[in-house]
Amino acid sequence: MKARKFQSLILDNLTSLLDPHLCPGCQQTLLDQQTFCESCQQRLRPVEHPCRLCGLENQTNDDACAVCLYDPPRWQRMIAPLQYQGLTRELMMQFKFSQSLHFANSLLQTIIHHFPGQPAKPEVLLPVPLHHNRLIERGYNQAFEIGRLMSLIIDIPVDTQTLVRVRDTEAQVGLTAHGREKNILKAFACNNQKNYRHVAVIDDIVTTGSTANEVTKTLHRAGVETVEIWSLARVSL
Ligand SMILES: [Zn+2]
Ligand SMILES: [Zn+2]
User: Fold this and answer.
1) If you compute the radius of gyration of the chain from its CA atoms, what whole number of angstroms results?
2) Contact, 204 vs 81, CB < 8 A?
3) Are 131 and 169 a contacting pair, CB within 8 Å?
4) At the N or C end, where does the chain have fewer CB atoms within 10 A?
5) Rounded Cα distance, 27 and 210, in Å
6) Distance 44 CA to ligand 1 centre (A)
7) pLDDT in tens, 193-215
8) Counting ligands in written order, which one lies closest to the CA of residue 63?
């Protein structure tokens, strides 16, 4: 990243963090305790009654949906509180492409209570890593930034050494579910020197779950027993 761009990025994020009184959705002045104005808050749609395994809306009275009870995913829990649409989608796109960290921070503030505290909390947050070629190109890993913000609020350390990307892959956007699975195959490696047993994998958005699936496979092979997938938003299928 060019120095000037980096400088303006820092300034932009700092100004917004220091001046939290403007609504990130419409820029109108907020009351002291507000993160969004009332009308923008209404536009952030949480997933109603989410399944604890796939994060999608669950029509049953169980905590897992019928699909997951029949064919459970590899991971042990998914928390992705917001529907990836409308204002959430707009803010996350800006977070991704303009690196506006304060948008992610505002979204996170509104949903942080969904992520568990003691004693059920994971030992560590593992952001989904980018391959270093892509990190150099983009200068920024959204998953890491979200992990860092979460870590500050819920006091779980972030670890960027244990889970690494060993294969550079095509972007998943535009691929079918099967294409995504193939594309991400064997993309990760885990060196579980710290002997973690219970982790939360952090990503910005969960789409088909193919990345989560591949990461979980890698972590289970390395001896992690409980893998939770935590992200800000879930794409409904
Ligand atoms: Zn607003
Ligand atoms: Zn489910």
Assistant:
1) 18
2) no
3) yes
4) C
5) 36
6) 11
7) 999 999 999 999 999 999 999 99
8) 2
For residue 57, pLDDT beyond 90: yes
Cα of 147 from ligand 1 centre, angstroms: 25
Residue 181 banded pLDDT, cuts 50, 70, 90: confident
Q: List 189's β-bridge partners, or say none.
A: 164
H or E stretch including 181? helix 177-184
Question: Cα(108) to centroid of ligand 1, in Å?
Answer: 16
Question: Any idea which ligand is nearest the CA of 237?
Answer: 2
Domain locations in the chain as residue ranges: 3-234
Give the Cα separation of 69 and 78 in Å (integer): 14
Among the bound ligands, name the one nearest to the CA of residue 72. Answer: 2
Q: Could you read off the pLDDT of 139-155 as tens digits, one per residue?
A: 889 999 999 999 999 99
Looking at residue 20, its pLDDT comes to 55
